[in-house]
Design a protein that fits this description.
The structure is a single chain. The chain is an all-alpha fold. It is built from 4 helices and no strands. Helices cover 68% and strands 0% of the residues.
Length: 71
Amino acid sequence: RKIIPLKKRELLIVSILTSLKYDEQLFSHIRGALKLGNKFNSIHKIISNLELINQKDALNFGIKVLTKFQS
């Protein structure tokens, strides 16, 4: 766990939770990623990259959760 910095680890977790469509956990880890200094656009890119591995449903799910943070 000490090999990957916490800020980057949160982005990895966001990607994994998005692909698994875990709503509450994803929301919590997006919040954590933002608190650690990750930018909204970086999180959006991580989620959008799921389209590259044919995860269109997960992409739409992740964007839906992420938009809760746009205010």
